[in-house]
Input
Amino acid sequence: MLIPRQQVPGLIVDTLDSGTFDLSNDAPEFASLVVFYRGLHCPICATYLKELGRLTADFAEKGVKTIAISSDDEDRARQMADKVAQPELRFGYGLPLSVAREWGLFISTSRGKTSIGIEEPALFSEPGVFLVRTDGTLYFASVQTMPFVRPHFQEMVGALDFVQKNDYPARGEYTGAV
Output
């Protein structure tokens, strides 16, 4: 389990148009917003990533760089990027499932074709949203076991004003006895 204020695992993936993404070298002013999505087969992911892409400039104004990452191969990632049609949003692909598991993501098995007629991969990760500070520590995390009910990016953009103005610390850091 990842712990706020502690280092996150390494994360290096190829991107469609930005070379290799290495979280440790991303160098945002405030944080990197890493959004793991299920893959091309997920219609909910496409809608979700459209919102992220639409708000990428707003995140950038707050010092946050965004990236969407899946275990899909390059071709499927390109199809998703084309579907989402948000050129400011970086797309990473080829996430090893062992790395997904290090990040605490749940892994699912294929159930065949989805409602939009696209075959699910044999194995893929479920969604997760992580805000990682420039020092590589976890600030915020939300991990899902299903494609439904994800954090709203517009709320996150608004929350960043409060967080930055008040130097609000990451919460959930306590690991002692309870």
Remarks:
- The chain has a mean pLDDT of 97.
- Residues 14-19+26-161 form a domain with the Glutaredoxin fold (CATH 3.40.30.10).
